[in-house]
Amino acid sequence: MGLDLYVTLGRSGLRVSSFCLGTLTFGEDWPFGSSVAVSEAVLARFLERGGNFLDTANMYAYGHSEKIIGDYVARSRLRRDGLVIATEFAGNLYGHVRDPNGRGTSRKTILQACEQSLRRLRTDYIDLYWMHVWDALTPIDETMGTLESLVQTGKVRYIGISDAPAWKVSQAQMIALSRGWTPLIALRIEYSLLERTIESEYI
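Now predict its structure.
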């Protein structure tokens, strides 16, 4: 399967390359990771091969991963509309700084996270905005309502959820559908022959 083969993502018409480039290791701000030069070389090769789907998060390398992508796209004068950029919220916005609203999925935190991600990515909108982890302290209708407001203002195109139990994903989707809000189009969970928690936690 080549990078230049495209599929639609979930129950949407969003066309993405068959492979998505994860950028967890972009930046050397954590104890592991790649330099800016190496990260940009990986980006360039992926795009040359026909990839268009990039995935990052506000917490990756304390935001540096997003910045590397944004700077590269701007400097290379790539057509932004030709890329599908996904990023995540819910991780700590401020690294080691203690802030009770620095992480999670409350309205305050999501809006702060989105604005900061947009600045680092140097873009007006996020194609796919992932909830990184489920926040048991925030009502899911507050989270979904906030995401709907971001879609309505054009700052986010599609939404997805990661690392949440099936009942919470189902609750979030039913709230969205029953209220006419933007539904989830993507779900990311761990699955392998060694790690079989999908059967016990997600079904």
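The two ends are 29 Å apart (CA to CA).
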